[in-house]
Design brief:
The complex is a heterodimer of chains A (484) and B (251).
Chain A: H1 10-15, H2 19-23, H3 37-46, H4 51-65, H5 106-115, H6 119-125, H7 137-150, E1 153-156, H8 157-163, H9 165-171, H10 182-190, E2 195-199, E3 209-210, E4 225-230, E5 235-240, E6 252-253, E7 256-261, E8 266-273, E9 287-296, E10 302-309, E11 314-317, E12 320-323, E13 329-338, E14 343-352, E15 358-367, E16 372-381, E17 389-398, E18 404-413, E19 419-428, H11 431-439, H12 444-460, H13 465-478
Parallel strand pairs in A: 2-4, 3-5, 4-7, 5-8, 6-9, 7-9, 8-10, 9-11, 9-12, 10-13, 11-14, 12-14, 13-15, 14-16, 15-17, 16-18, 17-19
Antiparallel strand pairs in A: 1-2
Chain B: E1 2-11, E2 14-24, E3 29-33, H1 40-48, E4 54-62, E5 65-66, H2 72-77, E6 80-83, E7 90-94, H3 95-109, H4 117-130, H5 136-139, E8 141-142, H6 148-162, E9 166-170, H7 178-191, E10 197-201, H8 205-211, E11 215-220, E12 223-228, H9 231-245
Parallel strand pairs in B: 3-10, 3-11, 6-9, 9-10
Antiparallel strand pairs in B: 1-2, 1-4, 4-5, 7-8, 11-12
Helix pairs in contact in B: 4-6, 6-7
The chains are: A alpha/beta (484), B alpha/beta (251).
């Protein structure tokens, strides 16, 4: 965390007595706030997990105690009191939730309107405490049938632990080890739920998998855990998130996503992240501290990350690919927008281990208002990775005089015939471009939106079709009032 | 169509136009020539509503209305078109997309229905053919990696599609080869009619030979110092602006 944050050290946490934790009625659906081994035991118990899962969580927790929050990111983070967090609650506490749409922030509702979110969806997204806000059952049923015919497993992580323990045991933590970093370790200890995907050998997943369609997807909580396994010769495209802003009471989100691609398998993972960014003063926004990593385990496998990040007060996220197999391919395509007082420190790591592994990084950062946008990238070529190639292009666009763009590319090349290319640019939406567009009859908002969409085009092009249309619209709405 | 009466303009408190007067009647083509720094480009920027320029006195009437009361985009909607001396590039935005957005912004402002993709394509292609522009240009990113001449042709293409009422072309002919110059002239002549007026700002008589304007004005130090028919351009070419400095009589 940044220098001005309070000492959030693990020592501090471990010394806090957690009396309430031990007297909780085991039948209640919510554990008291705070974090200690007893809480973790209770989480595991409530989820009726096997003992190996509990051991795994405890191992992560004990390791986490030895870690300190990272301070290297170009972010200013107010201290987070991890002992005020409720790590288990089922259903999620609705006591603070709005009772109807009338109680929801009108700004949020106005945004839904602009984005064309269907009426029946708005209440769910706004977090209104209604039992069955919308009925997705019929959609989900058809969906499940098609998938099961193909042998694809797509379920919640809890269900996977119960029904497919052999797969979970083999792969969980195999890409992001429990002790990988402070937030990943925390997630490993306390993760609430998440998604599990398994694509059998030589299977092309018959549809785009979207969190939107998974029952139980709502309220997976702030410590989401996702694991996708693509067996040899299989293919899958996974969509995470949606363009409508999500209202959420939890300030800290520390998710972990692990992808495993076996021989000749291909995984495409697309994200649109639009969590609440806080108000204009930056109050109340979400901290999105995510660890996403894919392992190209088999030869000729491919993992592609595409992200459009417009939300959250603070984003700390580096979807990465470990290119272990020979002739593997890793891709990272990103658009990150920061406005108001948003901060983003995002980028990727491409770790080349296999011979002939190739990676492409295209990062587009847009800063407006007082937004701060940092690209942080690392390209590593191991001595084993003969013929490795990387191409990185990293562009920043500034809107207005008070925002910032920063770039921290890093390259560690340990093979003499690796080819690494890096291109970078920083441009401002200059007055002359706006004047030109206005002279052609576009108003300022249309002009900015057009210029930004042009800037983002290489990324929008690789998004699944429907997402791309939504992403363009999202960008337009997000940029309203950024100029002038 | 357009009347400027005693218009004075400053940029950062430096006077550029000084009690400037000009009358462009409907259906006429006027050329404005003059040495560098005489205020020609300032005139075009003021007409388009560039906020960097402060109009300190005078009146600008366009179709009988106060032009200064309109925003730059509203001026475009009302039929004003400025061909830029240095057109900008917008990477990632298709030439067609840009032009279609511009056309539909105008149509929307005028309460007309939006032009659909099919009829727009026909419109754009026929405009491109008028000026001998390769159709491949329509699909490229807007002015991105265009040569100087290609950018100028693209300005003319936009002019043809947007069908403005008053066209101001700021040094549209600078840096053009003969073919491109012909194309620009073709575009202007194609659009020239009794309901439409043009102001051509230029240094060279070549374009004026191809277009044959109704009037040629010479600007010096922020004022029009001489006006005449298009043969004035040739006289200037022969004698230079120095001749004018010693002979500032309006004809």
């Amino acid at each position: 965390m940044a220098s001005r944050s309070a000492p959030l050290t693990s020592e501090l946490f471990s010394n806090i007595a957690y009396e309430a934790g031990f007297v909780t009625d085991i039948q209640s659906e919510q554990l008291p706030a705070g974090l200690n081994e007893s809480i973790i035991q209770q989480i595991s118990e409530k989820k009726a997990e096997p003992s190996w899962m509990l051991e795994w969580r405890l191992k992560a927790y004990r390791h986490w105690l030895t870690l300190k929050p990272p301070t290297w990111a170009h972010l200013k983070i107010d201290p987070i009191d991890l002992n005020e967090i409720v790590y288990f609650s089922r259903p999620k506490s609705m006591k603070d939730a709005p009772k109807s749409l009338d109680e929801v922030d009108p700004e949020l509702l106005a945004t839904y309107d602009k984005l064309g979110v269907p009426l029946h969806e708005r209440a769910r997204l706004a977090g209104v405490a209604v039992d069955a806000v919308f009925d997705s059952v019929s959609v989900a049923t058809t969906f499940k049938e098609t998938l099961s015919e193909a042998g694809v497993i797509f379920c919640s992580m809890s269900e996977a632990i119960e029904c497919h323990p052999e797969l979970v045991r083999e792969y969980l933590g195999s890409v992001v080890p429990v002790g990988d970093n402070y937030f990943a370790a925390l997630n490993s200890a306390v993760f609430s739920d998440g998604s599990f995907v398994y694509i059998p050998k030589d299977t092309i997943c018959p549809m785009e998998l979207s969190t939107y369609f998974r029952i139980n997807a709502a309220n997976t909580g702030q410590f989401e855990r996702t694991l996708i396994i693509a067996e040899a010769g299989s293919r899958v495209s996974y969509l995470e998130g949606c363009t409508a802003p999500m209202r959420d009471e939890n300030q800290l989100h520390a998710a972990v996503v692990e992808l495993v691609a076996l021989e000749s398998a291909s995984i495409k993972y697309s994200t649109v992240q639009n969590w609440y960014p806080g108000d204009e003063e930056g109050r109340g926004g979400i901290y999105n501290f995510v660890t996403k990593r894919g392992l190209c385990k088999g030869d000729r496998s491919k993992i592609s990350w595409t992200q459009v990040e417009t939300g959250s007060a603070i984003t700390w996220k580096y979807p990465s690919v470990v290119l272990r197999g020979e002739d593997t391919v890793g891709e990272f395509y990103s658009v990150a927008l920061t406005r108001q007082k948003q901060q983003a420190d995002t980028g990727t790591k491409m770790i080349h281990i296999g011979r002939g592994s190739r990676s492409t990084i295209i990062s587009k950062g847009i800063s407006a208002g007082q937004g701060q946008n940092t690209y942080r990238g690392c390209v590593k070529v191991a001595p084993t990775a003969a013929g490795a190639r990387n191409f990185t292009q990293c562009d920043s666009l500034l809107i207005g005089p008070h925002c910032g763009a920063h770039t921290f590319p890093r390259m560690d090349v340990m093979h003499p015939n690796a080819q690494i290319e890096h291109e970078a640019s920083t441009t401002r939406i200059d007055e002359e471009k706006l004047r030109y567009c206005r002279a052609r009859g576009l108003d300022e908002a249309q002009a900015v939106s057009m210029i930004v969409n042009g800037f983002c085009k290489p990324i929008f092009q690789v998004l699944p079709m429907e997402f791309a249309v939504e992403a363009r619209q999202l960008m337009e709405v997000s940029l309203e009032g950024c100029v002038g | 169509m357009l009347t400027l009466h005693n218009v004075s303009v400053n940029i950062d408190d430096t006077p550029i136009l000084n009690e400037f007067n000009l009358e462009v009647p409907q259906g006429e083509v006027h050329a404005i020539m003059g040495p560098n720094g005489s205020g020609k480009s300032t005139l075009s920027r003021v007409l388009m509503g560039d906020e960097c320029y402060q109009v300190t006195q005078g009146a600008i009437m366009y179709q009988g209305e106060d032009l200064m009361a309109l925003s730059p985009e509203a001026r475009a909607h009302q039929g004003l078109f400025l061909g830029f001396q240095y057109p900008v590039a917008i990477p990632g935005v298709n030439n067609m997309t840009f032009l279609k957005t511009a056309l539909n912004a105008k149509r929307k402002a005028l309460g007309q229905s939006e032009c659909d993709a099919m009829s727009f394509m026909q419109l754009a292609e026929s405009a491109a053919q008028t000026i001998g522009m390769d159709l491949a240009f329509l699909k490229r990113d807007f002015n991105t990696d265009f040569s100087g001449g290609e950018k100028k042709r693209n300005e003319i293409l936009q002019m043809l599609v947007l069908e403005p009422k008053l066209v101001i072309l700021d040094e549209i002919d600078s840096g053009l080869d003969i073919d491109a110059l012909q194309a620009v002239a073709l575009g202007i002549n194609a659009l020239r009619d009794a309901g439409r007026s043009f102001i051509l700002i230029t240094h060279y008589p070549r374009l004026l030979e191809l277009v044959q304007p109704d009037r040629v004005h010479v600007m010096m130090s922020g004022q029009i110092v001489m006006s005449g028919d298009y043969t004035l351009a040739n006289t200037l070419e022969e004698k230079g602006y120095g001749w004018l400095a010693s002979n500032t009589v309006e004809s």
